[in-house]
Amino acid sequence: MPTLQAQCLCTARTFTAPLPAQLPLPAASCHCTSCRRVTGALRASGTPWPGDGAAIAAAAAAPHSTLRRYRRSGRVTVLFCGECGVGLKGAEGPAGEVPVRCHCGGVDFVLRAGEAQREYAEWQRRGRELPWFVDPVTHKALGLVDSCDTCRVWSGAELFHWTFSALRHVSFAGGDGGGFPQSAVDLGAAVEAGDGGTRDPRFGTLALYASLPDV
């Protein structure tokens, strides 16, 4: 059976896995600050390892192992060769919450991204249709690059980027995050509520502007 091989530069560490029947393998390229600093490159590329990830983790935990661990962030641990420094595998913990806030801090919400991913994975397992903005492999929300006149004039940038979420996965930041509107109509009404004690102060400085009848 054809195999896939992952090997560091000094060849001290080699891992193999059966080559999946479905090719090409899904891959991702990231240029976040962590990826650039860990690799020293402008970006890092990777693919989910199709083999036994537990075996690699066990090899890293073995006495006198040359496979080292580096906790890159609260969620991601990198396994790399202690001899040549080549990163071989990343171990990602459970997805958590993503802060949604503006620069001045007037808007401060939370996107419960991990909860959304787990929910959509369960939907798929049960044969339920996923929302159009959910990737069927990662169950993450898709991103969109927009160059329409409205987006460019509003942002002052030639390209603008969007992502999407069901409002049930958004909450107010802080201890009491409940009560966030569950539909776009309800959110608009809540944001435009008068200041006479009817508007929830947790909306902060969030405002609404309709550039088009449905946008």
From TrEMBL:
Q: Which SUPFAM superfamilies match?
A: Mss4-like (SSF51316)
Please list the GO terms describing molecular function. carbon-sulfur lyase activity; metal ion binding
Q: Please indicate which superkingdom the organism of origin belongs to.
A: Eukaryota
> What InterPro entries is this protein classified in?
CENP-V/GFA (IPR006913), Mss4-like_sf (IPR011057)
Q: Which UniProt keywords apply?
A: Lyase, Metal-binding, Zinc
> Where is each CENP-V/GFA domain found?
4-124
Which protein family is named in the record? Belongs to the Gfa family.
Q: What is this protein called?
A: CENP-V/GFA domain-containing protein
